[in-house]
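Need fresh eyes. Consider my entry:
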Amino acid sequence: MMDYELPSHFTYSETDDGPARLQHEGQPLRLPKTGEFLLSLFLTKRERIYVIGDLAEEYQRIYSAVGRRSARFWFYQQVLGSLLPLTLRSLSMEGIPVPFLQLVRRLGR
């Protein structure tokens, strides 16, 4: 199990047998499963520790400040905004020609 350093009233952990677990003031709080799953498809385990940990910290802050709905909306914005760059990175690691990836990146701007 990996634990992340967050404020004392909030903890985040990832286990080998399941998704991230959040707690806010002792109560269970979960990142949206679908978004976390999508990120896990493209991130290495080491990257998940940091990326999802950072997202979890901000998710908790937004959740505490303005509620669940806004926190979920923000989280999915982050996930969807990350999918194209993560997909392009995965393709480049699989040997897709770099000029093709550069063209796709330019079209995305």
User: Anything to note?
Assistant: The chain has a mean pLDDT of 77. The first strand starts at residue 2 and ends at 4. The chain is about 65% helix and 15% strand.
